[in-house]
Amino acid sequence: MKFDTPAETNPIDRLTIVGKPLDRIDGPLKTTGRAPYAYEHHGAAPNQAHGVIVGATIAKGRIRRLDTARAEAAPGVVAVVTAESAGKLGKGEHNTATLLGGPEIEHYHQAIALVVAETFEQARAAAVLVEVEYERAKGAFDLAGERNGAEKPEKVNDSPPDTAVGNFESAFGTADMTLDETYTTPDESHAMMEPHASLAFWEGRKLTLYTSTQMVAWTKKDLAKTLGIEPDDVHVVAPFIGGGFGGKLFLRADALLAALGARAAGRPVKVALQRPMIFNNTTHRPATIQRIRIGANRDGVITAIGHECWSADLEGGKPDGAVDQTRMLYAGANRMTATRLETLDLPESNSMRAPGEATGMMALEIAMDEMAEKLGIDPVEFRIRNDTQVVPDDPKAEKSGAENGQRRFSQRPFVECLRLGAEKFGWSRRSARPGSTREGGWLIGHGMASAFRNNMSVKSAARVRLTPQGGVVVETDMTDIGTGSYTIIAQTAAEMMGVPLERVTVRLGDSSFPVSAGSGGQFGGNCSTAGVYAACVKLREAVSGKLGFNQADLTFADGQVNAGGRSVALTEAVKDGELVEEDGIEFGDISKKAQQSTFGSHFVEVAVDAWTAEIRVRRMLAVCASGRILNPKTARSQVIGAMTMGVGAALLEELVVDKRAGFFVNHDLAQYEVPVHADIPHQEVIFLDEADPMSSPMKAKGIAELGICGVAAAVANAVYNATGVRVRDYPVTLDKLIERMPDAA
Amino acid sequence: MKPFSYERAASPAQAAAAAARRPDAKFIAGGTNLLDLMKLQIETPAHLVDVNGLDLDRIEETPEGGIRIGALVRNTDLAADERVRRDYGVLARALLAGATGQLRNKATTAGNLLQRTRCPYFYDTAQPCNKREPGSGCSALEGYSRQHAILGVSDACIATNPSDMNVALRALDTVVETVKADGTTRSIPIADFHRLPGDTPHLETVLERGELITAVTLPPPDGGVHIYRKVRDRASYAFALISVAAVIRPNGASALALGGVAHKPWRVEAAEAALTGGPKDAAAALLAGARTTSDNAYKIPLVERTLGAVLTDARR
Fold first, then answer.
1. Would the CB atoms of B298 and A738 count as touching at under 8 Å?
2. Biggest alpha carbon distance in chain A?
3. Cα distances (Å, whole numbers) of residue A360 to A352, A353, A357, A604, B197
4. Handedness of CA B302, B305, B310, B316 (dihedral sign)
5. Mean pLDDT per 10-residue section of chain A, whose length is 745 residues
6. Which of A612, A658, A665 faces B309 most closely, judged by CB atoms?
7. Between chain A and chain B, how many beta carbons pairs sit less than 8 Å apart?
């Protein structure tokens, strides 16, 4: 199904099942431990051996000598794989560094060997016996230090590295009020609960891989490419994924080494990345340095806005898109953005929840708070005054043929999000004067920020069956990474086919199923259900044909097909056998005609210990405008999870770089702190009641990443409001406040 | 994990003798720290002596009116004990500020005394660390040292003792009771129990080879306001950036110990006398001779301000 005109009224609009806050259909499996994760497919193949990865202990250089003799002789060892023994390997399209290093080493903890043994314990003990001598090379590890060597990348996501509208320098130079500040965000790790893990086995030239991935089709393609085999010889299975956040978008070392290990051992091999290795072995969100300049007139109208960002990656990598939202969020006649990329020899940078926007909003939304204060305007009001209904800086406008070279947003209830949030949070009762609210030993502060994240459209297919018993089976390679995909897909199929939710079986995460959008970029929910919608439209047509209906306006409800006063049981259509249909959604240029984005607002109350400057969040509210909410319960879980991650980014998370040895020092969950339950207070989420016909037949948009965008800045702004101390370097920790705290006594 | 042999001890003396028999033996009780370290091959004992079955899990009153806490009393049980909560509140509070419920259920009193540092370089076997591999160097000195010690440090090591319990025990003038391999026993005041790093940071206590902790003894309760103030980045399950264990008595005989600042719980008796002058004076006495890095210099004002918080709390 081609989607290139706005959606009209369709069966989803009935909202008898879609749009309801239903429990996850996979919930009982998960709460009872019966949902098998990648490392737990014990029955999938007999005689599984265990692999443990050996990581490089230098950041850059060469292996001079690698001796596996002692490891091979250790008890239980079945095979040892190294780059040398593996032979020639390709590299996945989505990988920057090679997944099996040697002799060249590109980053710390890059995998250089896999030790396979009868038991996990034997493999782990033997892995330590692999002897390696290195020839270290000088590396670059300091983002701030290498800033002068930064280069202009070819592009930032789909946009040019530099953009300009009007004359920024002149407008900024003559503005009534200006702000020119630099903000930094650190490297961050996804820190998902389930480690990267895979089970691989070969049957002749056919490889089966049980793995933990967000993108089944990418894994299949990149694994085939790396191994130099046909994609059709790779079968990827990923029914349950214990979190990804972008860290499992790509083929990683566990999958490749499980496949190589299984080949070397001649039997199934499973591999989980050891937790202390995940932080340096896999990808991470890159650190940024961001300079923001805003000029405004006395009335608080922005006349100039500029955003520059520096980030780093390995040679051949990509920049962070932190300036992206600044092109779209606020009005302003004169604007500029610039993105620069440094080459560092730290582990590979890549996507993490709302890549670009999350980091960009961390900086931009502090800058907006600072500017509002300079202007003496309430920060909510300042944002409202600078709303825009067209994309102010739009490299895509020309191509779209938009009028006056400007595209409108498909929907933009941004001001509503701000106003509703302010009202529900009680914003008007906050004291605008920093450091002026104290309760006992606590300084109380309130902060807010805008939320913004683009909606992306990715084609997605599914197969649906109507069984003779009247059940509906959906098959798609879509993944459920804890998000609720199983449930919203079941809701979609049930709504379309007019059957209760219990009659729908959803099978996900298998490369033998039609290729879906996968889980990433907050596109999974809308796109994968739209694909299921498309397949169901075909199935409805098949049912209609079987039952001899010739009307176009059939109703499928309560297990019956109705039209023109005639009602036939759905099962009549399958009395001769099941019906199977397959289709997908493909997005035409509709997404280029109008900018599709999601909007919101975040409001936060913090308490800062007046003595120690410890920061504790007390209350959080998010208002989200994301098109139709397919399931308010799973959507809310996405948003509160994202808000929690935003608290982590604001207050805790930082991969600390050892600039001498070139690695992330705090590489386990004891040292890389993320919020625990005690850190997360009452969280409220309000969804605006809307549906966006430009997005898909589902009229839904992304939600999972909108929830993190702006949160950290809202927290940082609240800390400022509490203490009067402005911190521009994340995370906002007490050591950055303590010297400047007001007198506590 | 390196393969190891294992035995269960029948008595404290027999456990000590068994552990002394070979240089690469370790005791194991709760295992909450040791097993992690063994999996990472930071600790590589070839022999484990399991002391869990020993009759050392009781809390008893001493003839002097204090209490004697068996080495195997779990942190959860110790924190919940009525006498501890009533008479030694600082200890109960310190215990509950540490780790998680699950860990406290397993962790023992003696094990907590022997908890090893959480320096990230100690945890990465590829990095130099004098504590893990004597003579290899200290990565933290010029590396990442936000958590690290500012008092009693050396050029060989700036690691901290991560325990909360130890800080409270230091403020309470605990005595550590042990049995040696030859069956003799001794009592070690907590002040003398942990060492400063010097040039032997791998030696963390004065325990001899095979010497087994059997109990810790607290002196008779002496009133006062008991406060344990732990400062940390997140609200739970985080090690202290700094902590203060305080027993504040109106007669001026207060006790004050700091955590998160040194290789051992830090106490300077002169600071307690200075308390009457306020937190600034007490902090100055406690922090005399401090040596900071750019990462951990914040601990100086943090100690002073936290003392201010503690004194304010004590006056309530």
1. yes
2. 84
3. 13, 12, 5, 19, 44
4. negative
5. 97 98 97 97 97 98 98 98 97 98 98 98 97 98 95 93 97 98 98 98 98 98 98 98 98 98 98 98 98 98 98 97 97 98 98 97 98 98 97 79 79 98 98 97 98 97 97 98 98 98 98 98 97 98 95 92 95 97 96 93 98 98 98 98 98 98 97 97 96 98 98 98 98 98 94
6. A612
7. 100
Q: Judge: B306–A441 Cβ closer than 8 Å, yes or no.
A: no
A41-47's contacts with Cβ under 8 Å and 24+ in sequence apart are A41/A199, A41/A210, A41/A237, A44/A199, A44/A201, A44/A208, A44/A210, A44/A237, A44/A268, A45/A199, A45/A201, A45/A208, A45/A268, A46/A268, A47/A267, A47/A268
Cα distance between residue A575 and residue A554, in whole Å: 20
Q: Which residue of B has its CA nearest to A680?
A: B235
Minimum-distance CB partner of B301 among A124, A733, A738: A738
Half-sphere exposure in the Cβ direction for A679 (13 Å, CA): 26
Q: What is the mean pLDDT of residues B221-230?
A: 96
Tally of structural domains, chain A:
1
Over range B118-128, report the average pLDDT.
98
Two tokens, residue A700:
């839904």
Query: What is the phi/psi pair of residue B88, to 5°?
Result: -135, 55
Query: Going by DSSP bridges, is the β-strand pair A657-658/A663-664 parallel, antiparallel, or unpaired?
Result: antiparallel
Task: Give Cβ neighbours of residue A191 (< 8 Å, ≥ 6 apart).
Answer: A245, A653, A669, A672, A674
Angle at A191 between CA A186 and CA A194, to 5 degrees: 165
Cβ atoms A131, A66 nearer than 8 A: yes
Q: What local confidence, expressed as pLDDT, does residue B234 receive?
A: 97
Two structure tokens written together for B253 = 């005989």
Instruction: Please name every residue paired with A294 in a beta bridge, in sequence order, or none if there are none.
Output: A179, A305
Instruction: Supply A372's token pair.
Output: 């509002």
DSSP B147: T
CA-based Rg of chain B, rounded to a whole angstrom? 19
Question: What CATH number has the domain bearing residue A492?
Answer: 3.30.365.10
CA angle centred on A63, ends A62 and A69, rounded to 5°: 175
Distances (CA, A) of A170 to A297, A312, B103, B182, B311: 14, 30, 61, 86, 56
Asked if residues A300 and A175 have their Cβ atoms less than 8 Å apart, the reply is no
Contact B234 A613 (CB under 8 A): no
pLDDT-based confidence at residue B276 (cuts at 50, 70, 90): confident
Q: What is the pLDDT, as a whole number, of residue A403?
A: 64
A472: which strand partners? A466, A504
User: What is this model's ipTM?
Assistant: 0.97
Retrieve residue B250's tokens: 């109106």
Alpha-carbon gap, residue A186 to A174, rounded angstroms: 33
A651 Cβ under 8 Å from any chain B Cβ: yes
Query: Where are the extended beta strands (E) located within A161-224?
Result: 162-165, 177-185, 197-203, 206-211
Considering only CB atoms, B231 lies closest to which of A612, A671, A744, namely: A612
- Residue A410 is classified by DSSP as S
Which pair of tokens denotes residue A19? 């749009």
Does residue A636 form part of some domain? no
CA angle at A89 for the pair A341 and A124, rounded to the nearest 5°: 90
Question: Is A30 a domain residue?
Answer: yes
Comparing C-alpha atoms, which of A648, A641, A654, A650 is closest to residue A706? A641
Domain that holds residue A544: 2-35+457-591
Longest dimension (CA), chain B: 57
Q: What is the pLDDT of residue B253?
A: 84
Any domain includes A524: yes
In a domain, A512, yes or no: yes
How far is the C-alpha of B28 from the C-alpha of B31, rounded, in Å? 6
Torsion of CA B102, B105, B106, B111, to 10 degrees: 110
- Helix-then-strand count for chain B, H and E: 12, 11
